[in-house]
Amino acid sequence: MKKLLSLVLPLFLALQSSCGTREAAVEHGTDKAVTERAVIVDTDMGMDDARALLALTGSSGIRLAAVIATGGSASAAKGADNATGIIESTEKGYVPVIRGINPDLSAPPPWRAHAESLGGHPFPPPRRLTQRPLKEAALSAEGIPEGTWLVLGPLSSMSALEDIVPGTLGRAEVWMPATVEGGTVKGWNIGCDPASARRVLSGARRVYIVDTGAGLDEARILGSVEGDSPAAIWIGETAGAGNGAHAFLFDEIAAAAIASPEIFRISPERYALSGVDGETVSIERSGGGPISLVRLEDPAALEAFLHEAWELHPGGHEGHADHAGHHAVVSDPLARMKEFHGHLGPYVVLGYRMGMIALERTGSAGHFEISAEVHSTLRPPRSCLIDGVQLGSGCTLGKRNITVEETGGPPFAIFTTSGGTKVTVRLLPGVPALLQGSIDSVGVEATGLAAWKMDADSLFEVTTGH
Hints:
By secondary structure, the protein is of the alpha/beta class. The chain has 19 helices and 17 strands.
């Protein structure tokens, strides 16, 4: 609950606009000597959106207050799944993921299948972070967290949120990418839902349009990303040879403007919306207008920022998978066991811990990267261990990566990773009798709680090999 409350507290309100780079950093609370910046990322999860999200999760100056998946390049549902998979593959911990609005499109974009599959290299599907629809999240006790909005997709969810919680736009500071040419602003995301674009650009308290027409050598920048971080591996898989059509930087530039504003310049002129025609927005100078233009001043620094955020990106290992330690993101694993199994008993707890030990010893993300062979009696309470192994390791009957062999002795499980590493976790011989004595004395649930707290060395024998 403390983590959740911390996400809904605003950090800073923006002050008056400044054309200086240092002043701009302080203005928006992003001077790295001051604090992290709370950011709400509203994304339609195209390929550049994914790279932008990875850059933000890899930036020490950013705290993701929430991620909202709006339909566009990907559908809202699939975009939310992909965003959740990315977040779970980092070390950002708990981030609210919200399913936003699917705007009415005449037809899905031709690149939708590529976006929804993340270029054929998807991150593991959601396992721990729970998604909520926009209206439910907005009307919950926590509401939508406070923060700077970085809108990388259509503005449909922001517009809808104004209907759900009136006054949202009047409080919002919005950053968005677009191509700026004189007095016009162009972007596919604008044309997806021009009515919402008009509403947000005229109704938000402040709007910063980040010009993405910087003339960068995008293919070279993406092709030179190195390292074994989840971000670097994924970018190498999707932006290299054979994926030239997706070697572009768009949303990444806007992400950098949020995280590293000192390398950008905010125009001293203020603008107001004068019209929206398809993908084109017309703006005109207005001293009290809400719109400012943001332009990149230091391309080399942008490249350095992106490479650092991607290459030193926390979390995961080969295959851009999640750290086993991220199971701690679950607010209450005991509640999950109880909900799945029907009650909290010692053997479901022990099975869960066995699966967790296997992931920790192998560095595996579980689920699709490991299999389990459980040896146990097929009668409760010992067979309850099988349910715990499924929860703890992610090996399930539905995925066909768990098997059960009947044995009369203390239960044990053999876990094998996709790379061939094996871990055997055995229940020590005296444990079943100890548990039965506790069940007879204090009951099943109390014994389950005790099994959760006991030192692993007093419960299991663990061996590793190939």
